[in-house]
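We recall that each integer encodes one residue's backbone shape. We quote one record:
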Amino acid sequence: MESSSHQELFRLAHAVLQPGFVGTTAPDWVRRRISEGLRSVVLFGRNIVDGEQVAALTAALRAENPELVIAIDEEAGDVTRLEAWSGATRPGNLALGAVDDTDLTERVARDIGRELHAAGISLNYAPSADVNSNPLNPVIGVRSFGARTDVVARHTAAWIRGLQSAGVAACVKHFPGHGDTAVDSHHGLPEISASAEEIARTALPPFVAAMEAGVRAVMSAHLLAPAYDGELPATLSRRVLTDLLRGELGFTGLVVTDGIEMGAVSGRYGIDGATVKALAAGADAVCVGGESAEEATTDQLAGALVRAVREGTLAEERLAEAAGRVAEFASWSARRFLSVAPDGTRSDIGLVAARQAIRIHRRPGAPEVVLPVVGDAHVVEFSPVMSLAVDGRTPWGLAEPLCRLRPATTSVRLTEAEAGPAGEVLDREVLRPAQGRTLIIVVRDAARHRWMSDAVARLLSARPDAVVVEMGVPVGGAGGAADLVTHGATKVAGIAAAEAVTGSLTAAEPLSR
């Protein structure tokens, strides 16, 4: 291949980057980079005020290139960007998997797609096809459809069908599967110890189902899978991205990296090194900007790719191939986007699904009258530090919607720093105010947080009649007189839980499952 000019190499380098930016309007530097070959941008919660503002932002960006890929990480559920400030009105994957109605999943995803389409967004980094086989997984959890491969596979396919029917392209993640991990890849490098045979049996089928459902983009995982490559994380591994994904599974679409600034890869190779290695391994597009959203970062990565070509550590043919796949995907996604008429109509399908996902388990021998709560209640919500995938500012919980149904409800929210010692604070803020009231304990992934499970145990020893509401991944029973599980901490999950607590839940049938 004849060596390209310096300007052409920069154009190819810009084509494979998918940067984020700061602000709610299109920055001048992003507009300039689009004219210089940038084909994709990514929106985050910081870029969003409301639907009207996002639509104006995306229109301004697309005015620079009608085929510009405008992406977002809108899984719904606990990982929401569109509703980061108001709380998610649609449940996440775990709730949908718990209901196990693929038609419902498809309808929820179509509802998400309609809103994204109306906002001018053409690519969604969702769904998560990870089989959450480790219930203590710190980064996937409620983002997975569940711990069973068959459930995850059929709902992954349904979610993709629903989203893409609304004109928005799906991007299934995190290949080859992030479910059996114990480290958050935002901070460190997870490792999956399973054999290739076990991975093929348990983790890969949802990705195969996604391809059969028509997905055209796959996001790689920042994890080590020694069954395939004992040295390089999947995002940087040719054995994973080229030999496995393209060779064995036959995927011909766009391969996108997870955020390249995440600690699992940038901590070991630097953001420049990780970007070059990802392209060399077979990735086509590099997602960046969750944390590093400055113009300088885009320039830095484009420069690193050009230098790598000049120095021979990245083949120019590989960079050109990747840029070509981005261009092909951009044209396809633009056609799909334009093929569907805009329809920003919102439905109540999110609340319907959240209600169906509620499960209640009563402790043997516990008073039958513990639920519904008849008198006044005191709610304590234990708030953990969340993974960077989840916007910690997003509203969640039971207290607020319960207060709307029962105005006399009192509540307190405690963090680890406040409740960790579990002594005077619990007595002062929880047990004393709960005297003469029903005590409702709200947790979020209690099994993953020792301080939280210890606090719950202390409270239940003093108030065995308390109700425990788990808004994360349920692991065993919490031990309350009644345990209520929402399978997610969304706004609608809180509403459905409040209805269940007060006895006004309309979807009563699933509660005994």
Notes: The longest strand covers residues 377-382. Residues 507-513 have pLDDT under 50 and may be disordered. The radius of gyration is 23 Å. Residues 279 and 319 are 7 Å apart (CA to CA).
